[in-house]
Here is the input.
Amino acid sequence: MLMFFEAMTIVKKLSVVLAGAVFSTLSLGVKAAQAHGGHLPSDSGHLPSDSEQLPSSVDPRLGSDAIFYGEAQPLGDGTIRTWVRLDDHENPTDIGVSFTESALFGLPEESDDFGEYPLKLPLLDGIGNSTFEYELLFPQEASATPFTHLSLNWNPHGHAPEGFTTVPHFDFHFNLLTPDERDAITADDLDDFLTKAYETPPPELIAEGYGTVPNAAEPRMGVHYIDFTSPALQRPFDHIFIYGFYEGNMTFWEPMITTSFLETKPNITEAIKQPSAYPTVGYYPNGYSINYANGEYSVSLNEFTFRSSTLASVPESNLTLATLAFGVFGAGSILIRKWKFTIGNRQ
Here is the structure.
């Protein structure tokens, strides 16, 4: 009986140690998440909750004198140019691309091939269609954002998944990679490309609800992640927001929009679901807008917020938690060994 009570005393001590360590671990985990901006209201910008659509919006360029443009390029029968808007402290508030109404006409067809601009690319989505890529640099004033350039993909017959996005539409890729880095993403070795494209990103980079599907990887892009909880999936495809990854790294932020939706001349803004960490320190958007004003369309990322929560800072909290976990198991092992030793001596 004495041996039983001694054993129970040791078990109680073990329980106290484990409970205290677990509580400390959870507390530090919450504090670490707060320190690194994990879905906190104080660091989430001014837009409504994820995917909530505002009743209306206006082109961010209107009424502002701090707009800087990139070089205009041809698009269809019109022109297109990138731009960035700065605040009074020269920090970015909006970044986007605008194109004339005539740009929706005279766009390439599947049978066309114009050389390097636009660059015709066969899609690997299993359907056999092509996409036409227009590459445009952002103005130098956009350097505080992580976005280096825009690659606009015109899809005359759409792409997979069949029955959803197999309609004429644009993919507006706001790229975090440089043009040279995108050029290096090829499918010359298809197995190697797919392995790299589908490499799982760190969970901190994946916004809640987002995931990928087969046939979602393309050269010069990477793999596409879509929000499976988005209301956009409950209606015929007109616009949706997508993240891109390659080799586990974030590669682009992408509004995908049909030409038929653009032709309605919309003025809308929607929130972007945020990850809990970002690839680099800098200004990142909280929402995206699709606008029409004065004969021009604009597609832009908006409400930029400075983010210091990067993957480089995440391992600190993980290391702390791992150290505590190791301590928990170490303390438990010591007490268990002591318990066994006591029982063995009593026997």
Observations:
- Residues 1-55, 317-347 have pLDDT under 50 and may be disordered.
